[in-house]
Amino acid sequence: ADPVSLPRLGCGSMGGMLALPPGQGPLQVGCTDVMVGHSPQGLFLRLFYPCLPRAGATEPLWIPRSEYCGGLADAALGHRCCSALLGIAIGSCKVPVSWNGPFKPCSSGYPLIIFSHGLGAFRTLYSSICTELASWGFVVAALEHRDHSAATTYFCTAEAGTEQWIPFQRVPQGQKEFYFRNKQVHRRAQECVRALRLFQGIAGGRSVPNILHQDWDLSVLKDSLDLTKVAVMGHSFGGVTAVLALVKEPSFRCAVALDAWMFPLENVLYPEVPKPVLFINTEKFQTPESVAKMKRLSSRNGQTRIVTVLGTVHEDQTDFAFLPGKLFSCIFGRRGTLDPHKALAITTRAALAFLQRHLELEEEFGQWDELLEGVGDSVVLGAPSGRSHL
């Protein structure tokens, strides 16, 4: 095969136990890491973007460094001793995108999505969704939050070559979970707003030094972003983060919340959410309280939609869905019955139809509008009803 077209064949399946799908849209996808500032108040994100084909492109590691295996073992499994095993199982997996690939300029400007990860996750664990969206013509900034909700993360201090790691933190003993998580969700939503400011600065011609010294200049984005078309998206803790970001920042025109964990948001904020939200739920995660909060939002905004993908579990909206069954079960227990490729297609197509509608895009994504009404195989309107198809 022509080497340029290889990424479309899912090279991510080479090496390791994970076979992430390449984007199904018309564009090739590149990716780079961006860190701004020398303190926790800076930003850290992985950027997915449409890129030009490049022969011999290298693919980035899915787990960027061994420290993340330790963090994951601690956050997901509760045992740091599993870190080495995780490293062997998933440490060599690649993402089927072009690492630091040449950006494909776009005079009309790409819309922008800021993506927020779930509790105990980090910037790379939603690569399949971010890659898919980028392949349809979005620039996607997947944040790595520094509120102690990531499995682990770090920043580079001003002292050359030194890093400070920020570990995952459980709710401290004696503290009420709501207050602890509520403080985090506000901090996370603020990071989403700061990420938007970063791109507004770049579009305005501000020079932004990436302290990771990637061979990729952020100024290439300057004339290729349409910052009147910005959405915020996230999974679980990131889903509720996206909802809160709509309250904090008028430039976000809508939110896509994947299996949102609604618990940390204070009730007084529900009437304040001004823009439409698309809630895409899995079948097994939501509580009646969480669903009631979603319904409160949809009763106030006729454009808000709630759909459920049947045969899916909470982790099916992460890259873990593409792990082999046995490994998935070891880490998370039961997996969904719906094929993960199909689940990803339903989730991203519903998101694209919703984004077209509320960002006023002139694409063909309206072909998937019926998913927003719960019409289609494996998707129903409304929240999970408690009856299981798993």
Would you write up a description of this structure?
This is 1-alkyl-2-acetylglycerophosphocholine esterase. It comes from Pteruthius melanotis. Its EC number is 3.1.1.47. Helix content is 28%, strand content 19%. The chain is of the alpha/beta class. Helix 3 packs across helix 8. 50% of the residues are buried. The chain has a single domain, classed as Alpha/Beta hydrolase fold, catalytic domain (Rossmann fold). The chain is globular. A ten-stranded mixed β-sheet has the order 3-1-2-5-4-8-9-10-11-12, sandwiched between helices. Helix 6 links the parallel strand 10 and strand 11. It is built from eight helices and twelve strands.
Helical content class: 25-40%
What shape does the CA trace take?
A: globular
Following the backbone from N to C, one meets helices and strands in this order, namely EEHHEEHEEEHEHEEHEHHE
List the strand order in the largest sheet: 3-1-2-5-4-8-9-10-11-12
> What is the radius of gyration?
19 Å
The structural class is: alpha/beta
β content, as a range? Answer: 15-25%
What is the mean pLDDT? 90
Quickly name the level 1 CATH class: Alpha Beta
Q: Assign the CATH architecture.
A: 3-Layer(aba) Sandwich
Number of domains: 1
For the termini, the CA-CA separation is 39 Å
* CATH homologous superfamily designation: Alpha/Beta hydrolase fold, catalytic domain
Give me the count of strands.
Answer: 12
Low-confidence stretches: 1-15
- DSSP helical segment count: 8
Mind summarizing the main beta sheet? 10 strands, mixed
Q: Return the CATH topology.
A: Rossmann fold
